[in-house]
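Justification of resources, computational component.

The compute hours requested in this renewal are based largely on the per-chain cost of generating structure records like the one below. Each record pairs the submitted sequence with a full structure-token output. That output is archived, and it is also reused by downstream analysis tasks.
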Amino acid sequence: MDYAITGAIAASYYGAPRTTIDFDIVAYASSENVRRLIRALRRARIEIDEESLKQATQPDIYNIVRCRDPLSAYAVDVIFQRRRFTKIPGRTLGFKSNYQSPEDLVRMKLRMIRATIPPERAAKDVDDVLAILRNTKVDLRRIWAHSRRDKTVPVLRFILRHDSNEKRKMKLSL
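The structure output for this chain reads:
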């Protein structure tokens, strides 16, 4: 299956440990991949709406589908992408898995921050971006290029400025 773990779990993997109530994955939006995804979710006993999953792969359709775990308060959010994406091999609870690249994760979080209203609700995403940038080797040029394309430069500047202020405060307090 062509997928990668994203969201809070991927942020934790890259150095921003925090709790979450959902498991986010990004999946390539091909018919074959959707069939594989449906089989995998069924094996995990996750409630799915097959039609919603299939429709989400169509152009001009909202591409996130929430699937529920009937045995808990948790959910699986599937985010479909129509283009191939970078996957980083890793491990989750001892199992081989794929993670969204840190650059693509930062890109996604910057877009979420820009779209979040009121802006105060984006605090977790800001913290995630800061932790990823501090703890993971990233291609900052790629992040800036995505940010220019996505019109999230003001958000990225705010976060980097915030990070510089925090470092200065830390030095002053030492």
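The helical segments are 7-13, 31-43, 50-55, 102-115, 123-135, 140-150, 153-173. The longest strand covers residues 22-28.
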